[in-house]
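My current task is to audit a protein record that another person submitted. What it holds is a sequence and that sequence's fold in token form. Thanks in advance; the entry in question is below.
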Amino acid sequence: MASLSILIPTYNWDCELLVNSLQSQCSSLGIEYEIIVADDCSPDRFKANACKNAVEKLTNCSFIQLEKNIGRAAIRNLLADKSQYQKLLFLDCDAAVENDKFIRRYIDKAEQYSVVCGGLRHPDSQPYPCVELRYKYEKRADKKRLAEIRNKEPYSQFTPFSFLIDRDIFMQIRFCETFVGYGYEDVLFGLALKEKNVSIIHINNPLIHIGIEENSIFLEKTRQSIHNLYNHKEDINNGSTLLKQYRRIKKWHLDWTITVVDKIFGKLIIKNLQGHHPNLTLFSFYKLSIIHFLHKNQ
């Protein structure tokens, strides 16, 4: 049975319940395991310290507290460097385990494939107020997250939210640390897996994503992610649907319409997206407008 390093980067989130669930399942299976949580210099030190104290009380669990923020890509690389076992299970911190077979389902596939992606889903009802945009956006995406759909394009459907990988493979690829802030480091990682022809499978073993941001925060994270996309557009190329959409618009010489619509309706679009009834078509336009103005101002 596989020996397992479970690696959890965290930022302003107390993942005690997640670690408790994982540690209980690993102990029940009788496998060799470690759980390492790394906090990326959270400004909420009270929450970080509470998580640290809880995690370090558990068997085979450790906590790394960084004094400088290094970012989403670098902290995953650091966790891999600190790991000791051959199978690495990366999990995002703002998640909840759905069932008591979560670890078992990963281990059952660990020897057959170099990468196993379990997937994610979102709560059946909106968990907090003022998170309508992210919740509505993700619930629409959940319909396409069944394993049989993801396996049709396994590399483009890669997400770092929950995945198992051979340590040797990870050390060859690693996450690109030139990505700043939020977004698209996963796309480049998936492209690297494809280039190396790494064996990958998607399974129905989702974590529940519970860390859903307020509308204004999600809009800012979206803006960050598109800056990342644009700064790495040559590497990502056709790995991004948004890039392909914008290139088609430019090819048809329709990019001027983005400028006109944004000038007339831009403030109303932002108001809608930050409100209680966000329109996802307007959200798509918002993303196109960001990449358009980045292109114009390069």
In short: The chain has 13 helices and ten strands.
